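Narrative summary of target 7.
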Amino acid sequence: MLSFFLKSKLHHLRVTDARLDYMGSMTLDPDFLDAAGIRPFEKILVADLENGERFETYAIAGARGSRVCCLNGATARKGKPGDRVIVFTFCALSPEEEAAHKPRIVVFDGERNEIVRDSPV
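Modeled conformation, tokenized:
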């Protein structure tokens, strides 16, 4: 039997933009994706710390080094630029895999989208 566990988290990322006229998803700096081990088009869960909204979408890569965190399409209605968010991914693990599993947690400064800590728990 498989159980679901936290795979990675982008903690206190600041939303930089919201574009309603887009097909959907969340645009993230590839540096953020790499740090957390998130792949483009991977399903993500997003929690907005300012308004309590939680929503699922998928990650797409923006420009490297841009520090972008953009809500696209319908997700643009769930938050606004300046909001702090937490982005989660999950994985399914067998009992044998659980013991060695360590989620990847990337912590941001909460202001300029600078990584202040990037390490497994």
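Residues 3-120 form a domain with the Barwin-like endoglucanases fold (CATH 2.40.40.20).
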